[in-house]
Structures are given as C-alpha cells and as structure tokens.
Amino acid sequence: MAPGTPPPEISAAARQPYSEAAENIPLDNMVVKEVKVRSVELTDAVAKDKPNYRSRSQVTLCVIILFVTLNGCMNGYDGSVMSSINAMDQFHEHYDVGRTGPTIGLVMAIYTAGQICGSIFSAGVIDTFGRKYGMAVGSAFIIIGSVVQATSQTLSAFIGGRFIVGFGVPMCTIAAPTYIVEMAYPTWRGLAGGLYNVLGWYIGSLTATWTCYGTANIPGDMSWRMPYIVQVVPAAIMSATVWFIPESPRWLFAKQKDDVAKSVLTKYHGNGNPDSAVVRLECEEIKFSLEAEAELTRGRWWDYKILVKNRANRYRMWILVLITVFSQFTGGAVISYFLPSILETVGITSSSQQLLMNALNTVFSFCGGIVGAFFVDKAGRRPLLLWGVFLSGLVYIPINVLAALSGGHIDTASGYAFIAMIFLYGIVMSFTWTPLQALYPAEILSTDIRAKGIAADKFVSGIASFINLYATPIALKDIGWKTYTIFLVLHFVHLVLMYFVTVETKGRSLEELEEIFNDPKPVQRSKQLSRVVVGAGVGVKVADA
Length: 545
Fold this sequence. Notes:
By secondary structure, the protein is an all-alpha fold.
C-alpha cells in the first residue's frame, strides 16, 4: 500500500476482537487483510503463529523432505534405465536376445510383476514398523536387486534381479509420499509433495538416461553393468541414513507415542514452542481423527477391506482408480512406440543420437514439472488435474491426425511435427499431473488407510501398466493409427468422470479433509470458501456472520 493511502473499509462484524489477546489492541495497530479461505481453523492458527521459513527448524524440515525425495529418484532411475539399456548392442550380444519379441518383453514386464507383488506387502511393513522402516527395507531390496543385475551372467539371474528391484520400489514409493504429506508444514504441503514426485522421478530418470548415454560407448559388458552399479548409490545412502530423521508424527500418534509425536511437531512446526497454535491444532485434529477411525491400530496388516468399508473410503478409492487408470492410459506408451522409427525418418539414426533426444525430452518435461509444482498450492489440485486432462487431450488431436494421415509411414515434415507434439505433450503432463501423482493420493487418504490405500493404488497401477504394455503393441499391429483414437477418446471420458468426482484439497489440514469425504456432496463441499479477516499475530475473524 502506498504511503498516505487510507486502509480498506472493513465491516463492523470484522472489527470485533479477533481473539482474547487482541481485545485491548487498537485495530489500526494490526496488519489486517480480508481473504477467502477453505479452512478457518488452519488460517487462524497460522495467523497467530506465522512460520519463519528461514528458521533453523523449517530449513531442517526442508532438508529432511529433500532427503526423502531420494526414494523417488530410485523409482525414476529404474523406470528409465532399462529402456536405455535396451538400445545397447552389448546387452543384446551378451544375452543373445533381440530388441523386440517375447523374451525382451518378459525382461521389461517382470519389473512390473515385482511391483505388483511388492505393493501387497508394503503397507503392512509401513503401518506396523513405521514410515522410515519401509524406506529402509525397500532400499535394501533395491540394493540386492541392482547387485544381482550388475553381476548376472545368465538372463534368468538378470530377470530375477529385475523382479527384486520391482518388489522393493513400492515400499519406498509408498512410504516416502506418506511420510512427506504427514511431516510437511501444512501451508507448503502441496509444494513439498509436488516437488517430491517431480524432483524424484526426473532426477532419477535423467541420471539413468545420461549415465547410459555416457557408458554406451564403453566396450564390453561394463557399458550396461555400470548403470546398475550407479543404481546402488541412492539406495545405500537411504538405507544407511534414514534412521537419523524423525518418524512421522501421525504414525507416532497412531502407535500411542503421543509425547514423541508432539515433540516432533513442536520442533519442526512450532519452532520449538510447545504452545504454538499450529502444533495445538494439529495434535487435537490428529488425535480426534485417529480416535474416530481407530482402524490402524486394530486392523490386521493384510486386511484391505477397510478401503471399502464405508462410503467415504469407497469414494476415495474411486478417485484413486480414476487417476491411476488415466495415468497409465494417457497414450504415452503408444507415442513412444513409434518414436524410434520417427527419429530415423528425420535423420536421427544412431543409438547415441536417439538416446540424446530421449534425454532432451526428459529435460523439457522436468522443467515443466518444476514449474507445475509451484502452482500446486496456488492453482489448487482439482484445476491442475482437470486442465491437465483437457490440454493433453488437445495436444493428442494433432498426434492422432498425423498418425492417421501417414498410415504408419511418416514423412520428414510430419516427423518433425510429431516430435514437437511429443515434447509438448510431455511438458503439459509434467506441468499438471506429475506434481500430483504422488501428492494427491496421499492427501485424500486418511491416516488409518493411507499406506494401504497407496499400496492398492500401486497394485492397480501395476495391473494397468502390465495390460498397457502388452495391449498397445497388439493394437498398433491390428488396427494401426486407430489406437491413437482410442486414447484420445479416453482423455475426454476421463475428463467428464473426474469433473464430477475430484475434490479440492488445497488449504486444509489432512484431518480436515475428513469433513469433505463425509459430506453427501464432497466436490461441492471441497470448493466452499469462508470470508475472514486476518489479523497478523492474533488470528482471524469470520467476516460472514
């Protein structure tokens, strides 16, 4: 506000004292603003106890969350390393296996099979022994599997190593986002969860791609063994040092370790003040939520019936299934299937050049994801999800047209256009969906079902990925470019379905989201706003009587 500018007019109701502490303070001495918020209670607590993001506790919390992001790096690395190794002649010569066919298909798919099996057991480990324990155990499996792959002499041993890594990854990718949303400060939970998936996946993917690019010209087996040796590094760091970070306060409360849980919240959310308004609110909400649900401590680890036990949980799972299915059936696989032949058409023929194009595509997508993560708390989760489906569908239209006009034989000009659309498609999906793929499921699930819900999500994702892996090549062979049309239609079918079911989680604590899912109309309830007047240091007053 410029000097001499009069303060904004505030309603008489808003001029009432904000709290007992403010009763004797003249309104003119307060920093006042009128805003619309989703959570009056959280806004009030943050206004009374505004966080200092430069404080030692907040900086330490950021470092802890960045450290946990290593789990996402392991997922991104293994998700990309095999596709790059499949382009290396040395790998195929050693195992006498072709670049296509059922054998290499098994090598690719066995990782997904490991993920499906691992997801079943992950929730039990994470709920019983803690989020940190899940990260450590998952990392141990990844180390074992990576060593087996790096040292294997037979294809059977290599496939076994792929399965072991696939089995361990879900423990890390379930425990990590669960930990982050439960540990992050409420006002920047969206940014933390968004950056986890973006930084984790793309740093891992870029490391894998560029490592393979650098080792591709090494003569002999070390060209493809070295990337698996590198894969051991983040897993070893995680398994050795995860014990030095604090356990999730929500898991601690669930295990009746209230004093330890409160001390963690006090240190990292209250800047060492046990009477912090934010800490008091979180402790009260967490304990009330756990007492109301109480399934985490009573239920057996293998009992997944809790996920569909009541209407609220069924609604949550319906959202997760929609998001997971769309993530797997966006048409990304069918785009990448033709990419090598398209690159050859425009003169990009060598393995190193094609690896470079894949790496550049990953860089562009990474940049889109980073920017998108900073919009998660600004734009909200629901708008990003819906706009992501809509815009990616629009980009898919020219991809579909190019595929149809070419009849499977793309000329040079069309090839360049196709490549441009692939890059644009990756940027759109990374900006809108990548930041939310780990964050949103972890947010909408309550504490008592968070690990099991994400495990079920990974299980469904694995099944969908497995179907997609085998169905796409068959469809391309039998119906050609019409495969693109199927994925294009699916974009807009998902858009309609998601419009009616996805809720907004922005601006609320995890426990407050219970109110949304218990409401008869969750979507409408999630979009409701309250108009409040905020007094810095003293809290808020609801402006609408």
